[in-house]
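Here is one chain, start to finish.
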Amino acid sequence: MKLDRLRQSFEELAKFTDEGEGINRLAYTETERNAREYMIRQFEKAGLVVRTDYAGNVIARREGSNPELPVVATGSHIDSVYAAGEFDGTAGVLVGLEVMRSLADENIETKHPLEVIIFACEESSRFGASTLGSKAMSGRLDPAYTRSLTDKNGITLMQAFEENGLDLEEVHLAMRFQDEFKAFVELHIEQGPVLERQQAAIGVVSAIAAPVRFHVHVGGTADHSGTTPMDYRHDALLGGAEIALAVEQAALAELKYGTVGTVGVFSIQPGAMNVVPSASEMDVDIRGTNIESRQRVVSALEEAVQDVAETRGLDIWMEPISSEDPVQMDSGVVKEFQEVCEERGVKWLEMPSGAGHDAMNMAAFCPTGMIFVPSKEGLSHNPAEYTSMEELMEGAEVMRAFMLRQAEIV
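Its structure:
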């Protein structure tokens, strides 16, 4: 494999971005469509046969000596959040491309077919829903739910599909069958600091955490900040802050399970310096790979809501936004990745993924695994996100070795 060629791939793909800081390549936009078309050309130059399915997933296939055998596939996504870095998702796609290029360079033939998949709409930034492409491919996409999705400009998902030459009413046709796949594996940047701090080159993912999310409304009373004594107040901001701190404390008590809790959205009304806040709104994300641990944090949130309402005289209610189950990676795939790392003398760690990925949907219907490469200072969803080409190349070598084991060299 060629490091300079991999670097050039990143440089070229990074040119496909809308205005703004970092990378802005949202799902189903013209910019993302142009990036997909660029990738299709690169796959075709590498000798792959490419098709786009009914969800907008790009599937690039390198045929095996026995086309009837199930495929060994890899892939990720190239759509981004707002003001993203160059590596999130893109790393898995471009490493997959480089693996395919290297096999063509060396005239290596495999028994099983190989695929690189670019999944559509992995990020939730545009429509508030994530991993739509892999959900469609694995038969987990709810058609009724997709019809309700709209972006901040009022464009529906159905309209976005039409702009991309797709029909949302046909998205169910993107579903594939279990016996089509021997394995699916995804390479991704870690998006955390563990590998860098442990000086490990590869993270072998054991499970993918899943979130349960809530919206919490805190109702208080707007009062004059100068004339209302402290013990007469019903301050919605302070009540909300107390609940947020309770989430933090509950998650800290679950450190050994890796469960985390985050208040990622917090707003107050009326938002004036001289007025005691009358209302606060917050969105809470609690996630982990251990369901019992996650539930303990949820229970702590529920208890905090009740206690704060009573002690501060506030009207507080919470409603669920979403709930997903953690996903275990295939034990055989995990073991084989570990063996590949040992054979190559590569330091690896077995670790969970705190973020969701397309692999969690693929795991529902075929043997699935994931590997991480380090993220500098753990930064991701950030223009400063960085993984060196050498670290990416190490991941590519591990991925290639695994795929050749599975696909069997002729």
